[in-house]
Amino acid sequence: EPEVTQTPSHQVTQMGQEVILRCVPISNHLYFYWYRQILGQKVEFLVSFYNNEISEKSEIFDDQFSVERPDGSNFTLKIRSTKLEDSAMYFCASRPYNYEQYFGPGTRLTVT
Amino acid sequence: AQSVTQLGSHVSVSEGALVLLRCNYSSSVPPYLFWYVQYPNQGLQLLLKYTTGATLVKGINGFEAEFKKSETSFHLTKPSAHMSDAAEYFCAVSASGSAQKLVFGQGTRLTINP
Question: If A88 and its partner were Cys, which of A38, B27, B35, B72 is the partner (CB 3.0–4.6 Å)?
Answer without folding.
Answer: A38
